[in-house]
Design brief:
Rossmann fold, three-stranded antiparallel sheet, six-stranded parallel sheet, alpha/beta, binds carba-nicotinamide-adenine-dinucleotide
Length: about 250
């Protein structure tokens, strides 16, 4: 990555170096370098899905899970479960910054579990995780991803016969109130807020940014977002490269 004077990365590095509480808020763009497509890029899931008239929103809805479980799990297993994906530099940089006491929390809309795999400890998963699954019977028997069939079938709980669903927030479902509260608290306490790899189109998640009161809001995204005019620093670049370089600079300083 070649940079010039007045490098925005210098600004971000100095913000982080002088910060008491930095929070990162991210989305699907954080994991594209791990080979997981996002939703809204040209190569994203919404552009590449073809076919039978069902929208991606419907395929990822509570309604689809209940009415057409076979179709739901075919879509889910094929498009949202990536068991071989590994953390990229964005994930590892955030984990390193947290370990060094430079990052208070990661708030993510992602459901891929890659932040935890990279070593991040304080991770608020607004939309849940495909790593966790539970049966829809009364007992909610829990199953980690590696106990779910590695094929697009409807998983059935061996204990009660109910469908085993992913612990993700589907369209038509509510976000977990405790996760929202913890995220709001982290954002309210943050003096630096870094937002990256998200189109900021999905609510209520994107709305949480309104709780930031500081004047060091950095936005790192390949395409424009509705928050660009509100940001104090906009970096239209790859979040994995930017975070990697800023992390190296902060930890060397
Ligand atoms: P989105 O709406 O698809 O937006 C992604 C944004 O990231 C776009 O604006 C891209 O321009 C940008 N982008 C892509 N790659 C990079 C990169 N390397 N560096 C910087 N910017 C990049 O996704 P959002 O997260 O905003 O939308 C929220 C949805 C997407 C949530 O409900 C997620 O659960 C869902 N999702 C998650 C995953 C995952 O867990 N990895 C994958 C696909 C979708």
């Amino acid at each position: 990555m070649t940079r010039t004077i007045n490098d925005p990365l210098d600004t971000l590095t100095s913000w982080l170096a002088g910060s008491r509480s930095t929070v990162f808020f991210g989305g699907a763009g954080v994991s594209t370098a791990s080979g997981i497509p996002d939703f809204r890029s040209a190569a994203g899931l919404y552009a590449t899905q073809r076919g039978d008239g069902r929208s991606p929103e419907y395929m990822l809805s509570h309604e689809c899970l209940v009415d057409e479980p076979e179709e739901f799990f075919k879509f889910h297993r094929t498009n949202l479960v990536h068991p071989d994906a590994k953390p990229n530099r964005a994930h590892t940089a955030l984990a390193e910054l947290e370990k060094a006491g430079r990052l208070a929390a990661v708030i993510t809309q992602n459901i891929d579990g890659l932040h935890q795999m990279a070593g991040s400890k304080t991770v608020y998963e607004l939309h849940g995780s495909v790593e966790r699954n539970y049966c829809m019977g009364a007992a909610h028997h829990f199953y980690p991803l590696d106990e779910i069939p590695d094929e697009p079938v409807v998983p059935i709980c061996p204990k009660c016969g109910a469908i085993v669903r992913p612990d993700v927030v589907l369209y038509g479902e509510m976000l977990d109130p405790a996760t929202i509260d913890a995220s709001i608290e982290a954002i309210e306490r943050a003096d630096v807020l870094i937002v990256g790899g998200t189109s900021l189109n999905v609510y209520p998640a994107a709305g949480l940014l309104q709780y930031y009161r500081g004047r060091k809001l950095a936005l790192i995204n390949l395409s424009t977002t509705p928050m660009d005019s509100r940001a104090d620093l906009v970096i239209a670049d790859r979040v994995d490269e930017v975070l990697g370089e800023v992390c190296d600079r902060v930890l060397q300083s």
